[in-house]
UniProtKB/TrEMBL annotation, chain B:
<keyword id="KW-0597">Phosphoprotein</keyword>
<dbReference type="InterPro" id="IPR002645">
    <property type="entry name" value="STAS_dom"/>
</dbReference>
<protein>
    <recommendedName>
        <fullName>Anti-sigma factor antagonist</fullName>
    </recommendedName>
</protein>
<feature type="domain" description="STAS">
    <location>
        <begin position="3"/>
        <end position="111"/>
    </location>
</feature>
<comment type="similarity">
    <text>Belongs to the anti-sigma-factor antagonist family.</text>
</comment>
<dbReference type="InterPro" id="IPR003658">
    <property type="entry name" value="Anti-sigma_ant"/>
</dbReference>
<dbReference type="InterPro" id="IPR036513">
    <property type="entry name" value="STAS_dom_sf"/>
</dbReference>
<comment type="function">
    <text>Positive regulator of sigma-B activity. Non-phosphorylated RsbV binds to RsbW, preventing its association with sigma-B. When phosphorylated, releases RsbW, which is then free to complex with and inactivate sigma-B.</text>
</comment>
<dbReference type="Pfam" id="PF01740">
    <property type="entry name" value="STAS"/>
</dbReference>
UniProtKB/TrEMBL annotation, chain C:
<dbReference type="Pfam" id="PF08673">
    <property type="entry name" value="RsbU_N"/>
</dbReference>
<dbReference type="GO" id="GO:0004722">
    <property type="term" value="F:protein serine/threonine phosphatase activity"/>
</dbReference>
<dbReference type="InterPro" id="IPR052016">
    <property type="entry name" value="Bact_Sigma-Reg"/>
</dbReference>
<feature type="domain" description="PPM-type phosphatase">
    <location>
        <begin position="124"/>
        <end position="335"/>
    </location>
</feature>
<dbReference type="InterPro" id="IPR036457">
    <property type="entry name" value="PPM-type-like_dom_sf"/>
</dbReference>
<protein>
    <submittedName>
        <fullName>PP2C family protein-serine/threonine phosphatase</fullName>
        <ecNumber>3.1.3.16</ecNumber>
    </submittedName>
</protein>
<dbReference type="InterPro" id="IPR014787">
    <property type="entry name" value="PSer_Pase_RsbU_N"/>
</dbReference>
<dbReference type="InterPro" id="IPR017944">
    <property type="entry name" value="KaiA/RbsU_helical_domain_sf"/>
</dbReference>
<dbReference type="Pfam" id="PF07228">
    <property type="entry name" value="SpoIIE"/>
</dbReference>
Length: 135, 111, 337
C-alpha cells in the first residue's frame, strides 16, 4: 500500500531546505526516531545538492511505504535530466567525493539509508531510488 | 622543504620561477603547473631555477615530459639560472644536450 | 549488538548521573572505556548523542526545552561526522589490503630481478642495493658471457615505487634476451634505449652504466646512459678517477648514441659503480661530497668487496639517521691477481 506521492522541485539552493523539511515531517509521521530523522534529512540534502550542483534542476519525490503487519518505510526518489554519471563505480567509491570537499556523496546516501538503486545515462539524467525502513 | 611556484606572463612568454626543492613530494605541483601552462600552441616557457637548491631525478622526468609537450605544440622550453648542483644533474644525464639549460640568466628574465 | 548497546547505554546513563553528582574523575575514566567499546562496535557519534539526550531526560524529566533542542541540533551536526568516520574506516581497510599487496609485489620483484654474483677467479665483487621504500628503483644485473667476460649493469629508474619496479622487470628481461654476440656496452644501451623509448611514458626514464670486464686481460669496457659516474681506483697511485661516457638517459630519444671507453686494471685496483642514492646522501641539511664517499670506501678497503659495500652502506645509513632518502646501490669490483 502506498500513499500518494509528495514532491519537491529542486532549482535553487534553498529548495534543499524545503526538501529536508518535508522529508523530516514524513519520517516523523511514519515513526522514525530522532537519529533516523536526521539521517534521512542528511540523505535528502546530498541528493538534492547533487541535483542543484550538477543538473541545475530536478525533483525529489517521497513515498510512504506501508506493508500491512510487516513494515513501514520512507522511499526517496531523486530524478533529474542532467548530464548523467559516466562512471558510476567511481562515484560510488569511498574517498571520491570527500577529497573535493563536496560532502558525503552517494556512498554517504547509501550508508544513511537501507536500500539504494541508481540508474543513470550520460546526457539523459540520473534517477536514484532509496529506502529507509522503520525498525 | 617546500616548492614555491611563481607565474608571470610577459609579452609572448610565460616565466615560471621556482624556489625550494624539487623531489618526489613537490613534483606533482610542478607537473600541474606545466600541464596548465604548456597546452596552448606555440608558447615559450622560461623556467627560472635560481632559487632551486635541490632537484632529484623525479624532477628531471617532469622537465623531460614538459619538453615533449612544448615540442608537440611548437613551443619552446628554456631553463635559466640553474645552480651548479642542479646543472650537474642535467649534465650527467645528457639532458643538457637536448634541452635548453642555462646556468646564467637570459635577457628579459629577472630584470 | 542490540544487547551490547543496551547494556552500555545503561552504563553510560549511570556514569553520567554519577558525574553530575560528584564530578569525579573515576566516572570520566569509566566513560572513556565505554567510549572505546562504542568505537570498537562502530557506534556512530549521532547515536551517542542520542543516547546522551535520552539519559539526560531520564535523569531530569523536566529538562529545559531549549536545552533539549540544542542537543537535537548537535545530533544533526554530528551526522556528517558519522559518515566521514565510516568512510575512513573503509579506506583504512582498503589501505591495509593494498599494503599487503604491495609487499607481495615487492617480494615478487626481488625474485624476478634476482641475479647471481659471478664467482670468477681473480675477481672480487661486492654489491649492495637497498630500497628507500618497499619497492626498489635501483637495479643491478650480472651476466657471465661465454668468452669469459662479465657483464655488469647498474641502473636507476627515474620515478619511484611500483611503476619504476615494473619498468625494471622490463629491462631485466630485455637484457636476458639479447643474443650474446651483441653484448658490447654501447650496443646493449642502444637496444635498451629503443625498448624503453617504445614502452615507457615520457616522464619516466632510466639511467644505466654498463660495464664489461675481461678477467684474463684486466680490460674493462664501459658505457653510460646518463648514469651517475663510476670511479676507478688505482692502487699503485692510490688515486680515484671518475669514469663515465657521454650519453643520454634511456627512453628519451630514439636517436641517442652511446660511446665506449676502456680501462686496463691491475692487481688491487677497484672499479666502483653506484647510483645517485649514494652521492646524494645528506648529513643533516648538507649534501655529502663525492670525495667523502670515496674516503669511506678507502677506509674499508682492507676488507673483501662484499664487506666493503656493506660497511659503506652502514656508514651512510647511520649518517642519515637510518632514514634513506633514495634507493642506495653500490658495487665494487676488485682485481685480486
Amino acid at each position: 500500500m502506498m500513499n500518494p506521492q509528495s514532491c519537491v522541485k529542486i532549482q535553487k539552493e534553498w529548495d534543499i531546505v524545503g526538501a529536508r523539511q518535508l522529508g523530516r515531517e514524513l519520517a516523523k509521521e511514519i515513526g522514525f526516531g530522532t537519529v533516523d530523522q536526521a539521517r534521512i534529512a542528511t540523505a535528502i540534502s546530498e541528493l538534492a545538492r547533487n541535483i542543484y550542483l550538477y543538473a541545475n534542476h530536478g525533483e525529489i519525490r517521497y513515498e510512504i511505504i506501508q506493508v500491512p503487519e510487516h513494515k513501514a518505510g520512507l522511499c526517496l526518489i531523486a530524478e533529474d535530466e542532467g548530464p548523467g554519471i559516466s562512471d558510476i563505480s567511481q562515484v560510488m567509491k569511498d574517498g571520491y567525493t570527500t577529497s573535493g570537499g563536496l560532502g558525503a556523496g552517494l556512498p554517504g546516501v547509501k550508508r544513511l539509508m537501507d536500500e539504494f538503486e541508481i540508474h543513470t545515462e550520460v546526457e539523459r539524467g540520473t534517477r536514484i531510488r532509496t529506502i529507509k525502513w522503520l525498525r | 622543504m617546500d616548492l614555491q611556484i611563481k607565474h608571470t606572463e610577459k609579452n609572448e612568454q610565460t616565466i615560471i620561477s621556482l624556489s625550494g626543492e624539487i623531489d618526489a613530494y613537490t613534483v606533482t605541483k610542478l607537473k600541474e603547473t606545466f600541464s596548465t601552462t604548456m597546452n596552448s600552441e606555440g608558447k615559450d616557457v622560461i623556467v627560472d631555477l635560481e632559487e632551486v637548491t635541490y632537484m632529484d631525478s623525479t624532477g628531471l622526468g617532469v622537465f623531460v615530459s614538459a619538453l615533449k609537450t612544448a615540442k608537440e605544440n611548437d613551443g619552446e622550453l628554456k631553463l635559466v639560472n640553474v645552480q651548479d648542483r642542479v646543472y650537474r644533474l642535467f649534465q650527467i644525464t645528457g639532458l643538457n644536450e637536448i634541452m635548453d639549460v642555462n646556468k646564467a640568466a637570459i635577457r628579459g628574465v629577472n630584470e | 549488538m542490540e544487547n551490547f548497546f543496551k547494556e552500555r547505554a545503561e552504563e553510560y546513563k549511570k556514569l553520567l548521573a554519577e558525574y553530575i553528582e560528584t564530578q569525579d574523575e573515576k566516572a570520566l575514566y569509566e566513560v572513556e572505556l565505554v567510549s572505546k567499546a562504542f568505537i570498537k562496535h562502530n557506534i556512530l557519534p549521532e547515536e551517542i548523542i542520542n543516547l546522551h539526550i535520552k539519559a539526560l531526560k531520564e535523569i531530569y524529566p523536566d529538562l529545559v526545552v531549549s536545552y533539549e533542542h540544542s542537543m537535537d541540533f548537535l545530533l544533526e551536526a554530528m551526522i556528517s561526522y558519522g559518515l566521514a568516520h565510516q568512510e575512513i574506516q573503509v579506506l583504512r581497510e582498503q589501505q591495509i589490503a593494498l599494503k599487503s599487496e604491495i609487499s607481495i609485489a615487492a617480494e615478487m620483484q626481488q625474485k624476478l630481478l634476482r641475479t647471481n654474483k659471478p664467482e670468477v677467479p681473480g675477481v672480487d665483487i661486492g654489491v649492495i642495493s637497498v630500497p628507500a621504500n618497499q619497492m626498489n628503483g635501483d637495479y643491478y644485473n650480472f651476466l657471465l658471457n661465454t668468452d669469459g667476460s662479465i657483464g655488469i649493469a647498474m641502473a636507476d629508474v627515474i620515478g619511484k615505487g611500483i611503476p619504476a619496479a615494473l619498468c625494471m622487470s622490463m629491462i631485466k628481461y630485455s637484457l636476458d634476451s639479447f643474443p650474446e654476440e651483441t653484448m658490447r656496452p654501447p650496443v646493449i644501451l642502444n637496444n635498451l634505449n629503443r625498448v624503453v623509448e617504445r614502452n615507457v611514458e615520457s616522464n619516466m626514464f632510466i639511467t644505466m652504466m654498463y660495464a664489461q670486464y675481461f678477467p684474463n686481460s684486466g680490460r674493462l669496457a664501459f658505457s653510460s646512459a646518463g648514469h651517475e659516474p663510476g670511479y676507478y681506483y688505482n692502487a699503485v697511485e692510490d688515486r680515484f678517477t671518475e669514469i663515465t661516457t657521454r650519453g643520454l638517459v634511456l627512453g628519451v630519444s630514439e636517436d641517442a648514441e652511446y660511446e665506449e671507453k676502456e680501462l686496463l686494471i691491475n692487481k688491487d685496483d677497484m672499479v666502483i659503480l653506484l647510483t645517485d642514492g649514494v652521492t646524494e646522501c645528506r648529513d643533516g641539511e648538507r649534501f655529502i661530497e663525492i670525495h667523502e664517499v670515496l674516503e669511506v670506501i678507502k677506509q674499508y678497503s682492507h676488507l673483501s668487496s662484499q664487506e666493503m659495500v656493506e660497511q659503506v652502506y652502514k656508514h651512510f645509513e647511520r649518517l642519515q639517521d637510518f632514514k634513506l632518502q633514495d634507493d642506495f646501490s653500490l658495487l665494487i669490483l676488485r682485481k685480486t691477481v
